[in-house]
C-alpha cells in the first residue's frame, strides 16, 4: 500500500504546533508495518534557509490556479526511510511565517492543486491520501469532483484528520471559482458552505472516506454544539466514519535518559539527576535560581481553547504565592502582549518566549516541576504524552483528567 501524507507542516522541516509532530513521527512508524509512506508539504523559507542544498530536484508540475497557469518545482528529501516532497512557490511560501496571511486561502488552494497534479504525474501510484487539518481539506473535494475522471484518482481513498477543529479555513465563496476552478454547486449542496462563505475543513469532513481525530472522547465531544465549533452538524452526518485515535510520540526523540538537549539526563532510577535541568532553566531565562520555588511550565499555542486566559488571569496570584511560570508559545497577539507584559513586570518569576524553540521545549518539559494543561477540551495532546515520559506532574482542568493513556 502506498500512502501520501498531505500536510502544511511536519518535523523536522517546519513546525508551528502538534500537527508537525504527527506528520514527522507517524510515517516512519507506518513503514514498520510494510506500508510505503511519503509526505508532501510546502517549501517554506525556513526550509530553504536551513537545508536547500540537501534537497533533490524531482520535477516541475504545471498547475492551473484560477486564471493563471503556473509551474511549480518539486524537491525531495529522504529521512528515516520516508521521502518528503516540497512544493515550491516563492510568492506564496517564502515568507517569515507559515500562516496568518490575508491570502492564505489562495496559498493553500494552490498547494492542494499541486498535490492533485503531483498524484497524476508522479511515478508512484498512491492508494490513500491522508489529509491533515484545514490546509488540505479541499483535497478530497477536488478528488471527487474536478479530478474524479482521472484513472489515477478514481481508486483513491481519502483519510482526513482533524487536529484542531477551531481553525477551519474560512474564506469567501469566490475562492471556489477564482482559485480552484470549481463551481458554486458545492455551496448549494451544503458540502463546503459555512456562514456567508466556505470552509476548507467542512469540505474535508464531507468528502473524506474516513475522518479521524486525536482521541476517542474528543471524537464524541465534537459531535455536540458545545465543542463542535459549529461543525457538529456535518460531523454528526459523518459519525459512522469518525474515529478517535490517540496520538503517539517518538520515544527515541523524547527520552530523558538519552536527550542531548538536556543539561542532565535521567531515568526512573535516577530522578535526582533531573534537578540540574530546573536550575539550568531558571538561570538561562532570568528566573531566580532556587530548587524550592515551584516552577510551572507551559508549551502551547496561545488560543482560547488552550485555556490561556485562565493562566493569565491567575498569574499575579501565582507570583504572590512565590511560584515561577515559564511559557513557550505564540498565537493570539492579545495573549502574547499580556504574557510579555507579565514577564516584564515580574522578571524573576515569569518568563515568556514568543514563538517555538525545540531546545527550550525539551528544557521546559524536563526542568519544570509542574506542566500546565488548562484546556477545557477532553483530548489527548502531545504535551500530555511528553510529560508522561519526562516524569513529572501535570495540571489539568478537572473534567479532562480521566483520559490520560
Estimate the strand proportion.
Answer: 15-25%
Q: Could you list the spans in which at least 5 consecutive residues all have pLDDT below 50?
A: 398-405
Radius of gyration: 22 Å
Q: What is the number of helices?
A: 16
Q: For this structure, what is the CATH homologous superfamily of the largest domain? A: Glycogen Phosphorylase B
CATH architecture of the largest domain, by name, is 3-Layer(aba) Sandwich
Q: Can you walk through the features of this model?
A:
With 405 residues, this protein is of the alpha/beta class. It folds into two domains: 2-244, 3-Layer(aba) Sandwich (Rossmann fold); 271-400, Glycogen Phosphorylase B (Rossmann fold). The protein contains 16 helices and 17 strands. It has helices spanning 18-31, 45-51, 90-93, 104-121, 138-143, 151-154, 174-178, 185-188, 200-207, 216-221, 232-237, 275-284, 308-320, 333-345, 358-367, 382-390, and strands at residues 2-6, 36-42, 56-65, 68-79, 82-87, 128-132, 157-162, 170-172, 193-194, 197-199, 210-213, 242-244, 295-302, 324-331, 350-354, 370-373, 393-396. The strands form three sheets. The protein has a nine-stranded mixed sheet with strand order 3-4-5-2-1-6-7-11-12, with helices on both faces. A five-stranded parallel sheet has the order 15-14-13-16-17, sandwiched between helices. Helix 14 (333-345) links the parallel strand 14 (324-331) and strand 15 (350-354). Helix 12 crosses helix 15 (358-367) and helix 13 (308-320) runs parallel beside helix 14 (333-345). The longest helix is centred in the first third of the chain and has 18 residues, at 104-121. The protein starts with a strand and ends in a 9-residue tail after the last strand.
Amino acid at each position: 500500500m502506498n500512502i501520501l501524507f498531505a500536510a502544511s507542516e511536519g518535523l523536522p522541516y517546519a513546525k508551528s504546533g502538534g500537527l508537525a509532530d504527527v506528520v514527522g513521527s507517524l510515517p516512519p512508524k507506518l513503514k514498520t508495518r510494510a506500508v510505503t509512506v511519503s509526505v508532501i508539504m510546502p517549501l517554506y523559507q525556513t526550509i530553504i534557509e536551513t537545508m536547500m542544498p540537501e534537497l533533490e530536484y524531482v520535477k516541475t508540475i504545471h498547475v492551473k490556479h484560477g486564471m493563471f497557469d503556473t509551474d511549480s518545482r518539486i524537491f525531495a528529501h529522504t529521512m528515516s526511510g520516508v521521502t518528503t516532497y516540497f512544493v515550491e512557490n516563492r510568492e506564496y511560501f517564502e515568507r517569515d511565517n507559515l500562516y496568518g496571511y490575508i491570502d492564505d486561502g489562495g496559498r493553500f488552494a494552490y498547494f492542494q492543486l499541486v498535490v492533485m497534479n503531483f498524484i497524476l504525474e508522479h511515478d508512484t501510484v498512491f492508494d490513500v491520501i491522508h489529509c491533515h487539518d484545514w490546509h488540505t481539506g479541499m483535497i478530497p473535494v477536488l478528488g471527487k469532483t474536478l479530478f474524479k475522471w482521472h484513472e489515477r484518482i478514481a481508486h483513491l481513498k481519502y483519510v482526513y484528520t482533524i487536529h484542531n477543529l477551531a481553525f477551519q479555513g474560512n474564506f469567501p465563496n469566490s475562492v471556489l471559482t477564482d482559485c480552484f476552478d470549481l463551481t458554486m454547486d458545492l455551496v448549494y449542496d451544503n458540502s463546503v458552505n459555512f456562514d456567508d462563505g466556505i470552509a476548507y475543513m467542512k469540505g474535508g469532513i464531507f468528502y473524506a472516506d474516513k475522518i479521524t481525530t486525536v482521541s476517542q472522547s474528543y471524537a464524541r465531544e465534537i459531535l455536540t454544539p458545545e465543542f463542535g465549533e459549529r461543525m457538529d452538524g456535518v460531523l454528526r452526518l459523518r459519525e459512522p466514519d469518525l474515529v478517535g485515535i490517540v496520538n503517539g510520540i517518538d520515544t527515541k526523540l523524547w527520552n530523558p535518559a538519552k536527550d542531548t538537549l538536556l543539561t542532565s539526563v535521567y531515568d526512573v532510577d535516577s530522578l535526582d539527576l533531573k534537578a540540574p535541568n530546573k536550575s539550568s532553566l531558571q538561570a538561562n531565562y532570568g528566573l531566580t535560581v532556587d530548587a524550592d520555588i515551584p516552577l510551572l511550565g507551559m508549551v502551547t499555542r496561545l488560543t482560547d481553547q488552550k485555556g490561556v486566559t485562565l493562566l493569565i488571569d491567575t498569574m499575579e496570584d501565582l507570583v504572590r504565592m512565590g511560584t515561577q511560570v515559564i511559557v513557550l508559545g505564540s498565537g493570539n497577539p492579545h495573549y502574547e502582549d499580556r504574557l510579555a507584559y507579565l514577564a516584564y513586570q515580574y522578571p524573576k518569576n515569569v518568563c515568556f518566549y514568543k514563538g517555538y524553540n525545540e531546545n527550550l521545549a525539551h528544557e521546559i518539559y524536563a526542568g519544570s516541576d509542574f506542566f500546565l494543561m488548562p484546556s477545557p477540551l477532553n483530548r489527548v495532546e502531545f504535551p500530555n504524552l511528553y510529560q508522561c515520559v519526562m516524569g513529572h506532574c501535570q495540571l489539568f482542568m478537572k473534567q479532562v483528567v480521566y483520559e490520560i493513556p
